[in-house]
Design a protein that fits this description.
The protein has 19 helices and 27 strands. The chain has 684 residues and is α/β, with parallel strands linked by helices. The chain has an 8-stranded antiparallel beta sheet with strand order 3-2-4-1-10-9-11-15, covered by helices on one side. It has a 7-stranded antiparallel beta sheet with strand order 5-6-7-8-12-13-14. A 5-stranded parallel beta sheet has the order 19-18-20-21-22, with helices on both faces. α7 (329-337) packs antiparallel against α14 (501-521) and α10 crosses α11 (428-439). It binds uridine-diphosphate-N-acetylglucosamine and 5-amino-5-deoxy-1-O-phosphono-D-mannitol (M6R). 5-amino-5-deoxy-1-O-phosphono-D-mannitol binds at residues 375-378, 422-424, 427, 430, 473-475, 558, 562, 680-681.
Length: 684
């Protein structure tokens, strides 16, 4: 979905070429999120203090990928003879990747959106303004004309309106940039993260948000290191000190510059001016209905340190992020479990410690029902964990796709525990379901990969899966880490029960072994490439699973369809005779998951029935079972290592991830940014 990046250098000389490259590179870091157009705004000349009104900022916008923007920017720079070597000791630039919601991808609909031909105010926006039509009508009545189809365009125009109104009859500007933005925010409904740049406030930027993530990164430079090669330890944000400030909707775009960040909170207005950072916030919820006299309070906030490394956002030796992330799973699982599994000893039982929920376990154990809520892969991960949670806790567990729960306004009670599963922690549907569950008084638990995300902040408690940055749009390592965390959640909830202690200890042993078993199954890479080669021209692929591996069928099919663009459907094998059997013939490839668990004999029977109808079978079974499980004539057998039944989905998904990856590469599609998809779906 949309991405924001801004760069402000203060008291440090930067050439225009350098500034452009920082902004464009910031956009490259946001590419993975999905977008269809992009844009930037920089200054047309360095701004001298004596000038009353600085020249209009330049705005470059383009549809298509970042490289088309890069090309058009440099073409225009050359055509207008803009000096790339011109140096700026202070400069504020903004940039944006857009994922079209209102209006098709085109330069006029890309951001920055502007207040008019003079670019008095330019704005980049993530999110949706729900009352933009009313605002547009009002602004049109005041003489504004609109050029785009976006909801965003009302924002810079409203800023100009507010600015002009405040300065009516004044010889000079009498209003602060932050006051203009605070007034604009009072009129906006919807979810948004915004950055404002203005020719009336040269070298300043304002960032604000209500929904949608936004982070400020701070890199302080020592005075004699103006080249920016190294920087001092951050102590206090001294106003006059040379520094570089970055704002982004995504930590991935900041980490190569700095790890010192401020996570901007809803309702805050962050003003970057003269090397200082001021944070303002209305004390009431929205500052709405509070009248013009209501003043926002200044807020003091501490910086936090990003717990990620630059290597995480690079592909390393791999060709694609999806490939890297599939192969990273032994390590990501190790990190997920680090410090959370207790080996026990002679007198102490093996156990699990989840610091994030330990104080809430009593409440969870007393709940009448546990609801798992998520979308896409996160939903599938929860589905994979449901059987073990039900078995160990004895509490009924119901599954909810977030959007459907909200559509139905399904009943949620105070006695419920609602578990929100989301890699990004920012998925709009899941967040809306969270809001709904909070209103209904349920205990809300988050399971997310993103520290500081909306799910992490707004749930009562939760567990970070610590899988590391996942950049491929197709979720892979987050899926396996989510299952591991939810299995640990089940173990923690059941920790006070003696009757299932042996079972729990067996699962803990299997968790310890899981990274090495995953390493083993990754050796199927080449085999999966060969299988992909055989399937390259197929129209469709079915995946049959049941029990613990119903989720594997759904998730395997989701992986294949989302990246390789081949139709694929995950089917609960128990439903086979209730419809899907009609599809079976000698051409349609069908993967059947028949690894060892309580559904094994039923799956053997499914294989026999499909075989009897000349089905083209690809059977996944436990190591050593190939001969007994597969009828002669099964076109392919995938043998995987066996682990404890409830953890088998972690192993079984990996060959299917590899298959989806190779199919995509062989079919020539974009693996990391599949057509029409975005990494985190922040609009509904
Ligand atoms: C925490 C620290 C970790 C440290 C460990 C040992 C963080 C992010 N984690 O890990 O660096 O090594 O203690 O001291 O600082 N939470 C939610 N909702 C969510 C996810 C988490 O409310 O969706 C809350 C948890 O309830 C907890 C906090 O965030 O209060 C951190 O959660 P988590 O990282 O899972 O906790 P630990 O594993 O204990
Ligand atoms: O960030 P989330 O886990 O909340 O995202 C939910 C889905 O959008 C996501 O899992 C999606 O299905 C994956 N890209 C599929 O690989």
């Amino acid at each position: 979905m949309c991405g924001i990046f801004a760069y402000l250098n203060f008291n440090v000389n930067r050439e225009r070429r350098y500034i452009l490259e920082v902004l464009l590179n910031g956009l490259r870091r946001l590419e993975y999120r999905g977008y269809d157009s992009s844009g930037i705004s920089i200054d047309s000349s360095s701004i001298s203090e004596n000038v009353i009104l600085s020249p209009p900022p330049l705005v470059y916008r383009q549809e298509g990928n970042i490289e088309s923007l890069v090309k058009s920017v440099y073409e225009e720079v050359a055509a207008t003879k803009l000096n790339l070597e011109e140096s700026f000791s202070v400069h504020a630039g903004i940039a944006h990747t857009r994922w079209a919601t209102h209006g098709e991808p085109s330069p006029k609909n890309s951001h920055p959106q502007t207040s008019g031909p003079e670019n008095e105010f330019v704005v980049v926006h993530n999110g949706v303004i729900t009352n933009y039509e009313v605002l547009k009508e009002t602004l049109m009545r005041h003489g504004f004309t609109f050029e785009s189809d976006t909801d965003t365009e009302v924002i810079p125009k409203l800023a100009k309106y507010v600015y002009d109104k405040a300065n009516e009859g004044q010889a000079e500007n009498t209003v602060l940039f932050s006051d203009v933005v605070l007034e604009v925010m009072r009129h906006l409904d919807g979810a948004y993260a915004l950055i404002f740049k203005s020719r009336h406030y040269p070298n300043e930027l304002i960032a604000c948000k209500r929904g949608g993530p936004l982070l400020l990164g701070v890199k302080e430079l020592t005075e004699d290191e103006n080249s920016g090669a190294s920087f001092s330890d951050f102590k206090i944000l001294k106003d006059g000190q040379p520094k570089e400030l970055f704002i982004s909707s995504d930590a991935n775009a900041l980490v190569e510059h700095t790890k010192k960040v401020l996570v901007i909170e809803d309702g805050e207005v962050v003003h970057l001016k003269d090397g200082g950072v001021t944070i303002l916030k209305f004390e009431n919820e929205k500052g709405k209905n509070s009248g013009a006299l209501c003043r926002p309070a200044s807020v003091q906030r501490a910086l936090s340190i990003l717990e990620m490394e630059v290597e995480q956002i690079n592909k390393g030796k791999y060709k694609h992020y999806m490939q890297k992330e599939i192969h990273e799973q032994p390590e990501s699982l190790r990190t997920t479990m680090r410090g959370r599994l207790i080996r026990g000893g002679s007198s102490k039982a093996k156990s699990v410690l989840l610091g994030g929920i330990k104080d809430h376990l009593k409440t969870i154990r007393r709940s009448r029902r546990i609801l798992f809520i998520g979308c896409g892969t996160s939903y599938n991960a929860a589905l994979a964990a449901r059987p073990i949670l039900e078995e160990l806790s004895g509490i009924p567990v119901t599954m909810e796709i977030a959007s459907d729960l909200v559509d139905r306004q399904g009943p949620i009670y105070r006695e419920d525990t609602a578990v929100f599963v989301s890699q990004s922690g920012e998925t709009a549907d899941t967040l809306q379901a969270l809001e709904y569950a909070l209103e209904n008084g349920a205990l809300c638990v988050g399971i997310t990969n993103t520290v500081g995300s909306a799910i992490a902040r707004n749930t009562h408690c939760g567990v970070h899966i610590n899988a590391g940055a996942e950049i491929g749009v197709a979720s892979t390592k987050a899926y396996t880490s989510q299952i591991a965390v939810m299995a640990m959640l089940a173990l923690a909830i059941a920790d006070d029960t003696i009757s299932n202690q042996d079972r729990r200890e067996a699962i803990i042993d299997s968790l310890f072994e899981l990274p090495s078993r995953v390493k083993e199954v990754l050796k199927l890479d080449h085999e999966m490439e060969e299988l992909a080669q055989q399937l390259i021209d197929e129209q469709s692929l079915l995946v049959f699973g049941r029990g613990y591996n119903y989720a594997t069928a759904l998730e395997g099919a989701l992986k294949v369809k989302e990246v390789s663009l081949m139709h694929s459907e995950g089917i609960l094998a128990g439903e086979m005779k209730h419809g899907p059997l009609a599809l079976v013939d000698e051409n349609l490839p069908i993967v059947v998951i028949a690894t060892r668990d309580n559904c094994f004999s039923k799956q053997q029977s499914v294989i026999q029935q499909l075989h009897a109808r000349k089905g083209r079978l690809i059977v996944m079974c436990s190591k050593g079972d190939a001969v007994s499980v597969c009828p002669s004539g099964a076109s392919r057998v995938i043998e995987v290592p066996q682990v404890e039944d409830c953890l088998q989905p972690v192993i079984n998904i990996i060959p299917l991830q590899l298959l989806a990856y190779h199919l995509t590469v062989l079919r020539g599609f974009n693996v990391d940014q599949p057509r029409n998809l975005a990494k985190s779906v922040t609009t509904q």
